[in-house]
Amino acid sequence: MEAIIKADRLSKDYKIYKDHKGYLGALRNLFDRRFTLVHAVNDVSFRIYPGELIGYIGPNGAGKSTTIKMLTGLLVPTSGEVQVNEFIPWKDRKDYVKHIGAVFGQRTTLWWDLPVRDSLELLKHIYEIPSDRFKQNLDSFRAILELDAFMDTPVRSLSLGQRMRADLCAALLHDPKLIFLDEPTIGLDVVAKQRVREFIQFINAKRGTTILLTTHDTADIAKLCKRIMIIDHGKILYDGEFDELIKYYGGSRVLSVEFAEFYQDPTIDQAKIIQRDGVNVIYSFKREDISASKLIHQLSEKYRIRDLEVQDQAIEDVIRDIYENQLLYN
Amino acid sequence: MRRNLSLLFRLLRIQIRSQLQYPASFVMEVLSQAMILGFFFVAFAVTLSQFGDIGGWTLGEVALLWGLAEFSFGMMDMIFSGFDYDAFGPLVIKGTFDQLLLRPVNITMQVLGSRFVLRRLGKIIEGLIIFIIGLSLANVDWTLGRILYIPVLIFCQVLFFGSLFIFGATTTFWTKERLEILNVFTYGGSEIMSYPMHIFPRAIRLLFSFVVPAIFLSYFPMVYILDKPNPLNMPVFTSFLAPFIAISMFWLSLKFWRFGIKNYQSTGS
After folding, report:
1. Do A138 and A285 fall within a single domain?
2. A98 pLDDT exceeds 90?
3. Residue A256 is part of which domain span?
4. What's the mean pLDDT in A210-239?
5. Is a pLDDT exceeding 70 seen at residue A330?
6. Nearest residue on chain A to B178, judged by CA atoms?
7. Which residues of chain B register pLDDT less than 50?
8. Rounded CA gap, A153 and A161, in Å?
9. Do B10 and A125 touch (CB under 8 A)?
10. How far apart (Å, rounded) are the C-alpha atoms in residues B166 and B259?
11. Which residues in chain A are contacts of B178 at CB distance < 8 A?
12. Region for B65 from its dihedrals, namely left if φ exceeds 0, alpha if ψ lies in -120 to 50, beta otherwise
């Protein structure tokens, strides 16, 4: 299958200029151009294939947004190449952006002072969407995203969750084959997050839309993405299946126990105490060392237990481990 | 182009509709704006009546200059609202400008359509009234050429001020802040254009002849229309340079604007 996005040896350097403040500061900024060079994205290559839903993750300042900006044509790379379908994003801007959609969690595509309905209507003209197609799409998205309650509300008065739903709808009305979602769940409550995730899943599965998703929320990744790319310090550290990564680097499980009485030293073979607070003790153990039932059995033979719970190590912790300990560098 | 214009009008229609949501308060605002601005002229007229004339120009003659500059600046300030720093600066600073780049339409049209301050009608009405006062007071020998030159001048002044706005907006791609000094040229320029320029010190005249060529858009053309002696001893053709200068400046400002967008795309914000 032909890749929909081809990025080859993509790099972007930023010049960070010395910033003058105060009287005449702005004027000095214009002429005094001393700078330091930052390699925001450094020799990155990847392929993305039609129909994929890829998680693109990394800590703050890792180079995620810069990559997305280059892929959407907002930024011209310092070196390297990007091709999306037959387009070179920054060269063919006007033709290219007709075929993609983008949602940035931090800011809206919609017109701040206009009711949602008018904003969407404007997009119909901007993208020259045929009326019947527009109506079909709008009807379907309205139902799934439950937009009806705030169709006539100005965008500025929407809650974050409502705005995000309206933005998602706006980004998809013109049937883009490829969409970029940059932090679409940021700041949303649990219910709103769930709704957004379901929608992302729906358009990927039912419409075959290729989706590149950046997020800080590892639950998004776990629920949505089969393949992930991890970027840090401008370099791709991992590009592969999410499950593989977790199996390889994660795999720790956690057993939280509440004992019926206080024990001086509630140790047990093959499990490590990671937290202790009176009768509440948390053990960590590896799946391949001991099974949960065996561990519980051993514990209950030695101690009296009031309550317990087994959990897989939070995915978030696995990812954090990877960032912090730079597990993928070697 | 047709598509761009139809989108622009659509954006403007929406702007106007929302600004006219409360028509009564809108009318009040426009009228009070016109009155406040008009009082500056009244104060000037009263002062001038103590002297009789200013540099050999009567009140009516100055009123023609004044009205023309106010009318044109008001028109420009309404049409080019999107390029006003107050609107455009935040677009660049907050990164909202990215959203314009993501839409498959001309960026200049999007900026023009992003804001249309209908309230500027206050200044436009004020300018018009002062111009009419000028017409009734001044003694003009109206030839066909002179009559036709008036709308041309308005068009040229709008382009002239508009190009200053576009220049100013473009600098924000680099500075991210307001360059106060640019107001000297825009607002200062329109102020200077309201007077017969030979009354100003040489330095100011040179500034508004060669740095910002405002003198060619109001003073020299009006010398022709009013058939005044030209104390600056400029050749006659300087009265007719307005279209050439306005169109060149506008073209240059659009070039600079394009260059600014290119730069924005290569540096990010």
Report:
1. no
2. yes
3. 252-312
4. 90
5. no
6. A26
7. none
8. 14
9. yes
10. 12
11. 26
12. alpha
